[in-house]
Amino acid sequence: MAKILVVDDDQGMRDFLEIMLTKEGHKVSCYGEPEKALVRCGKDKYDLVITDLKMPRMDGIAFLKRLKEQEPECQVILITAFASGETALSAMKEGAYDYIEKDFDIDDLKKTIGAALDKKGIKSGDAQFLRDIEGGVAFGGMIGKSKEMLKVYSTIKKVAETSANILILGESGTGKELVAKAIHENSPRKDMPFVVINCGGIPENLLESEFFGYMKGSFTGAFADKAGLFEVASKGTIFLDEIGELPALLQVKLLRVVQEKTFRRIGGAEDIKVDVRIISATNQILEKKVKEGTFREDLYYRLNVIPVHLPALRHRKEDIPVLTKYFIEKYSREFSKDVITISTYALELLMDYPFPGNIRELENIIERCVALETTNIILPDNLFIGHNREREENNLDYNFSDDGIQLNEELANIERQLIHKALVKSNGSKTRAAELLHVSFDSLRYRIDKLGIDNQ
After folding, report:
1. Per-residue model confidence (pLDDT) at position 372
2. Which of 73, 158, 64 is nearest to 121 (CA)?
3. Which of 8, 12, 276, 353 is the most exposed place for a label (fewest CB within 10 A)?
4. Is the pLDDT higher at 178 or at 339?
C-alpha cells in the first residue's frame, strides 16, 4: 500500500509505528536521525512521512522545512508531546498536513494517515502501483512511458479490482493479450487460471467443443468426457481474442454463459455452473458489425461493460526508443550477440516509420537486425523496414546460388531504387521525397550521401 517513512529518535515509538503500519499493509522505513532520513528521501520517494517534533540536532520543524524543499508533494504528520497553537501554526506554515499528540488514539492516527494520503490524491491501495509505473518503463509485461500508456496502466489497475467484463480495443500487434494478462494478474483472481482462446484461429466446427467440452460418445471420436476451456478457467479469467470472428451460433451460446453463468457440454444433459471473468479483444469495429447484423447487439453490450483502448505505436512514438532498447537486449541475450545499441540515424528511421504492424512489427525488425548484425551497433544499412510480404515476393525473389548473396549490397540496391523513384516522383524535391518515404529530411540526405545517389 502506501510507502511511509517514520523519523523519531525514540526506538520504542519507531518500533510501535512500524508494527502498526506494517499490519495495515503499508511499506515502512524507520530512521532515528533526521539527517539520515533526508538522505534517504533524496534517493527514494515516500507518500507520507511521520516525524517527531522534538529531536536532537534537528527538530521536526527544521526537518519538515528541509524535506519540503526536496519533496514538496510529500505529506507530513508531526508527533509531539508539547502540542500548542504556536506549534500547529509553525507546522502548517512549513507545509505539514497535520500533527498529533504522543498519547494519540490509534484509530485517530489511522484516520489522519488515510486523510493525508487521500489529500495527495493517492488511495492507499494505489500508492505502490503509482510508484511502480512512475518511471513509466514497464508494467505487466508492457513497455512504455508515454502519456497514452500511463493511462492504460492506470485503467488496468482500476478495472482489475472489479469483476466486470472487459473489451480491449486496438489494432493488431498492439499487445492486447498483455493487457488482458495484466488485468488478470492484478485482480483477486490472479492465483486462478488465465485461459486464452483465439476465436479466429480455431476451425468453426471445433470451437464449441473447445469452449464447452463434450461427453463421451456425443460424436465420432469422442472416446471420453472432455472439459471445455470455460470449465478449465473456472474461478479465473478467460481471454477471448479476436471476438469479432466468433460465428453466429457460438455468439448465442456465449451470450447464455455471460448472462446465466451456465452452459452444457456437447451431448450433455446437465447445466454446468461456472464462475469466470470474460475479457475479450478485437481489432475490428464491433459497432459496425452490430449494424451489419454479423455480431449480436446484446452480446456486444454484455462483453463491452468496460472498454480499454490500446493505442497504436504511431500514436505513442516516444515509446519507440525504450521498446527498441528492450528488444535489442532481449535478442542479444537470445542470440548470444554483443549488439548493445542502435545508431542515431537508425533510431530516427524507426521514429519516422508509421508501423502498420505496431509493436509486433518493431520486435520483428529488431530481432532480424540483431540476428544479422556483425557489430555491436545497429546501423541504418541493416535496418530493413516498410516492406510488406507482397513487395518482398515481387522484388526479393532471388534464386540463391551455392555462394548465396551479399545481403547488405542487395538491401542497399533496394533502398537506392526506392529513393530514386521517390526523387523522380517529387521532381527532384528532397523534402517531398522524404515525405513520400516517411523519413525525415536529414535522414534522406544521409541515405543519399551514403548510397552515392545522383539527384541531378
Report:
1. 84
2. 73
3. 12
4. 178
